[in-house]
Amino acid sequence: MTSISHIQRYIPHDLNTKFYSVNLYRKGYPISFVCRRYKISKSSLMRWNRKFDGPKESLVDKSHRPISKHPNAHTDTEIKWIKNLIRRNPHISMSELYGKLRTEYGYSRHAASLFRLLRKIGFYVDKEKHTKYVPKTYDTPTNIGIKWQLDVKYVPKECYSGKDKEKFYQYTVLMKLHVKDLFIHTKNNLLTQLLILLKELLFILVINQKLYKLIMVLNLLIQRILKKFILLMFYAMSLKSNTN
After folding, report:
1. How confident is the model at residue 213 (pLDDT cuts 50, 70, 90)?
2. What are the phi and psi torsion angles at 152 (to 5°)?
3. What is the value of pTM for the model shown?
4. CA 185 to centroid of chain Cα atoms
5. CA 49 to CA 43: how far, in whole Å?
6. What's the confidence (pLDDT) of residue 186?
7. Is 113 in a helix, a strand, or coil?
8. H-state helical runs in the chain
9. What are the two backbone dihedrals, phi and then psi, of residue 217, each rounded to the nearest 5 degrees?
10. 154: which residues sit within 8 A by CB, 6+ positions away?
11. CB of 157 within 8 A of CB of 205?
């Protein structure tokens, strides 16, 4: 199946298709038969028939560029004005250029028309195309204490019942690690776990200076310590069942 690109508006016919379809039509075959055989339209066949004068080269498509300019296009004088202003001030903005053209030269065209001309003469260079972002695999830490995540949240005034007018923030520090890695490290070195928890406590105490923040941090740490001890208990129970 022939695919049409975004630039082409239709599938261009081959030169042989044009030549043989016109010859078949001039031999007396009906238009409907010629169009069905070569899969062309009646208007294309009639257009080729008018162009054909004997040799095959007469059916070659000519340039579609107009011979003369559009009547509403910029004149050579207007283009000269624009280029002179840009040459005197290469860093001129479009609004300043448009204003000078209207006040000093009587320029009466729309600003969009000026923008199209500036882009055509190369005043606006297209930006460099950035390479497409390719997502990378998430870097999961293999040891405890390597990757930490700090989250800061603003505490609304509705949640505070005191008389202090200062703003309050909640700081949360999380340690990223897989559960299966936690089993391995807990089995190897329990003292390392306790030292890391102490380090986490000291780190958060430095950030948080308010008493209510300290309570929140201690509550979080207690919950995390309980979770780790529960995991240790499950791990010990699994080892006991394997030995039995």
Report:
1. low
2. -115, 125
3. 0.34
4. 41
5. 10
6. 43
7. helix
8. 15-26, 31-38, 42-51, 76-88, 94-104, 111-120, 179-188, 190-207, 211-243
9. -65, -45
10. 167, 168, 169, 170
11. no
